Amino acid sequence: MLLQLARLGYRAVFNVVFRRMDTERAHHFGAAVIRGLGACRPAAAIASRLTRPSAKLRVTAMGIEFPSPFGLAAGFDKNADLVDGLAALGFGHVEVGTVTPVAQPGNPRPRMYRLPRDRGLINRMGFNNDGVERAADSLRARRNRGAIVGVNIGKNKVTEAADAVDDYVAAARAVRDVADYLVVNVSSPNTPGLRGLQELDALEPILRETLAAAEGVPLLVKIAPDLEDDALDRICGLVRRLGLAGIVATNTTVSRAGLRTRARVVEAYGAGGLSGAPLATRSLEVLRRVRAGLGDDACVISVGGVTGAGDVRARLAAGATLVQGYTAFLYEGPLWAAAINRELARR
C-alpha cells in the first residue's frame, strides 16, 4: 500500500511539475536526487531495505548472479555516477553510458522530448558524456560494490568509421576492471555513420578486437530494432562465431509509425531515436528472432517498451535472460523497479 501511494504521489508531481519542465532539465533534477540518495548512506540503506528484490528473483547470467532479472538500460546514467542511488531503488543491474574514449558535449539542445500520449521519448543526445576515464573513476569510487554494473561503450563523433575499432578497444581497456560486463553500442541513431557499423565487414573487427581487449569480461553487442531479419540472423551468427556473451536487443528506433501524438508535433521534434511503449512490439519480435538465432546458451538482454511486470514476464517467456527499461522510469518514478520486482515475486 505504501509503495502504491508513493507511486501515485510521484505521478501527481510529474503531471503538475515535471511534465511542464524541459525534459533534459527534469532528467538532471531527478539524477541529482538519485545521486544524493546514493551519497547518503543511512538513506540508501533504508531505501535498499524497502526495495530489495526477493531472493526468488535471482538469476545467473554470464557467470554473474543478478538479484533480479530487471535492470536499468544505458542512457540514464551516462557518467556512471548514479549507481549507488539506482541500486538502492531496486534495479537488479545498471548499465551505464554510453561512454566514449574522449569527453564530448553531444548534439545541440533541445535534444530530448516526451511523448506522454504514447508513453514514449524522442532523444538525439549524441553520446554526451565526460569520457571513459571519468566513468571508470566514478565506478571505482562507488560504495555499493555488490551492485551489478554493465558499461556501454561507443565511438566519438569525430572518429571516422574506419577507425572506430580503436575507440571501442580504448574504452574497453579503460573500464574492464570496473565492469561486470561490457556492451558495444553500434546502434544509436544519433551519431552519424554509427549504425553502418552493424554491417558485418565493419562489425566483425570491432567485436573481435574489443573482445580481446575485454580480457575475459563478458562482451555483448547492442543492435537496432530497425534491422531486417536477415541482418539480425547474420549478426547472431557472428556473435556465435566470435564467442561473445550475447546481444542487447534493442536500441531506439527511427520509425514514427503508429504514434498517437499529433504528426505535426512529432515532426517539429525532429530527428532522434524513439523509445518507450511504441517500441514494445518490434522489440519483442527482435527478441524472439535473436533467441532463435543464438540458441539457448547465450545471454539476451531485452530492452524497448518495457513498462510493467507483465512486460518483463513476457520478455522472459520469449527467451530473454535479462530485461531492461528506461523510458517508463521517467513516467513511473523512483519506485518503478521496486514495484516491478514485487509483482514478479508475487507471481
UniProtKB/TrEMBL annotation:
Q: How is the cofactor bound?
A: Binds 1 FMN per subunit.
Question: InterPro entries in the record, alphabetically?
Answer: Aldolase_TIM, DHO_dehydrogenase, Dihydroorotate_DH_1_2, Dihydroorotate_DH_2, Dihydroorotate_DH_cat, Dihydroorotate_DH_CS
Catalytic activity, reaction form: (S)-dihydroorotate + a quinone = orotate + a quinol
Name the positions where substrate binds: 78, 123-127, 185, 190, 251-252
Residues where FMN binds: 74-78, 98, 152, 185, 222, 250, 276, 305, 326-327
Specify the protein's topology with respect to the membrane: Peripheral membrane protein
Chief location: membrane
* EC numbers on record: 1.3.5.2
Q: In which pathway does it act?
A: Pyrimidine metabolism; UMP biosynthesis via de novo pathway; orotate from (S)-dihydroorotate (quinone route): step 1/1
For activity, the cofactor(s) needed are:
FMN
Its annotated compartments are: Cell membrane; Membrane
Which keywords has UniProt assigned to this entry? Cell membrane, Flavoprotein, FMN, Membrane, Oxidoreductase, Pyrimidine biosynthesis
Q: Which GO terms describe its molecular function?
A: dihydroorotate dehydrogenase (quinone) activity
Superkingdom of origin organism: Bacteria
- Catalytic residues (positions): 188
| Annotated Dihydroorotate dehydrogenase catalytic domain residues | 57-346
Record-stated family = Belongs to the dihydroorotate dehydrogenase family. Type 2 subfamily.
Spell out the NCBIfam families in the cross-references.
PRK05286.2-1, PRK05286.2-5, pyrD_sub2
Q: How does it assemble?
A: Monomer.
- What job does this protein perform? Catalyzes the conversion of dihydroorotate to orotate with quinone as electron acceptor.
Task: Give the protein's recorded name.
Answer: Dihydroorotate dehydrogenase (quinone)
